[in-house]
Amino acid sequence: MERIWGGARSAVGSTADIDSAGTRAENENIAIDWAYVNYVSPIGTFEVGYMNYGATGTIFGNSSYPAGRIKYLSNPINDSININADITKVKDQSYSAVNPSAVWTDADNDAYAIEGTYKWKDGKAGMKIIFYDYAATRPDISATPPSATYNYKKNYFLFTPYAIAKIGPVSVQAEFNYATGDAKKYDQDGIASDVKLENVSGWIDATANLGMAYVGGTVAYVSGDDLGTADKQEGGTLTGGVDWNPCLILFNNDVITYWKGGISGYDSSAAGGIMKNAWFAQGRVGVKPVPQLDAMLSVSYAKADKKPLGFLGDSYGWEVDVTGTYKITNNLSYMLGIGYLFTGDYYKGINAGGTNEVVDDYMLINKLTLNF
After folding, report:
1. How far apart are CA 199 and CA 182, in angstroms?
2. If exposure means fewest CB atoms within 10 Å of the residue's CB, which of 66, 143, 208, 372 is most exposed?
3. What is the predicted pLDDT for the residue at 288?
4. In 304-341, which positions are buried (b, 16+ CB within 10 angstroms) versus exposed (e)?
5. What is the DSSP-derived secondary structure letter of residue 223?
6. Pick from 172, 97, 184: which is nearest to 138 by CA?
7. Contact 34, 47 (CB under 8 A)
8. pLDDT tens digits for range 145-159
């Protein structure tokens, strides 16, 4: 569990900026997110209840939240191989005794997964395969009462190979995600054209520990939707994830979306939030003069994989971040940060008349984090 106190200030990023409240609210006191039974049997461990969902492999692509699950974790094979499986109720809205107002018997979002992992002294590699049976789109909410005319299901597989390793002084992590299947499979033939799903994302991240100093770099990619293929959806399902925040402004969900609210440009463009439809590269250097203090400088660049319809620019821009984090105790830390975004032309939107203007964006932040 993590609790954060702090504040952030961001300058206007364009002449069309909107400062709105975050979409999630902090718990007033204490909330219980996980509650499950753990049973260790001779053939492995079983877990049933509400537990963490949305995290696989590395932190890239993860969007963790509690969900109803049944999990099986095998006993280690030769002390290095594990096989895990789980069933997750991502969304429950079918007719039942606890949901008698529902009008459909198959309107849930379910996920079925199997994962194999291999561990060695300085690393871990794995492969997870998930089948998503998403039927929450079947009640047509645009009709009153709900109509079956344009109802569809979303069924697809997600393949996620990943690896985390330490090679001498260098720590490396990599992950690749490939989603394939049906983005829209209509219940009734001839009503509308089905849409296939083909999404790709991934990253490679490396950090070299040089004693008091360290250097590192990241390259990440999330495919965007190709506007020329109406029968195929190449973007929108896979993202960089809520848990991964590589910058203080660009693709930052914790500070921008959660605390401050959106930093928006023209035509629905926005600087904060999860990474999607993008190429991203970052270089960083840091120093730890004492074990408790970590000071880091990073330089990042991002551009859209596919430009939205009518957009003239595809560059999200360059960002320079300087942060200093001091570890007060084992579970309490304080961070100061400055972020400056050299705003790209992407945020000018369609800009048909060439009159849309954007300005650079900056942030000053202080944050106190307590983990327990």
Report:
1. 11
2. 372
3. 96
4. bbbebeebebbebbbbbbebebeeeeeeebebebebbb
5. P
6. 184
7. no
8. 667 677 889 999 999
289-293 long-range contacts, CB within 8 A, separation 24+? 289/212, 291/327, 292/326, 292/327, 292/328, 293/324, 293/325, 293/326, 293/327
* CA–CA distance, 79 with 83 (Å, rounded to integer): 12
Q: How far apart are CA 100 and CA 152, in angstroms?
A: 22
DSSP element (H, E) containing 190:
none
Tokens (6 digits) for 283: 């270089």
pLDDT tens, position by position, 81-136 = 999 999 999 998 877 766 777 767 788 999 999 999 999 999 999 999 999 999 98
Q: Is residue 66 predicted with pLDDT exceeding 60?
A: yes
Closest CA to 196 of 229, 153, 230, 232: 232
Assign 30 to helix, strand or coil. Answer: coil
**The pair of three-digit structure tokens given for residue 56, joined into one six-digit string:** 């696989």
pLDDT of residue 247 exceeding 50: yes
The pLDDT value recorded for residue 237 is: 95
Q: Which of 203, 112, 206, 198 is nearest to 162 (CA)?
A: 203
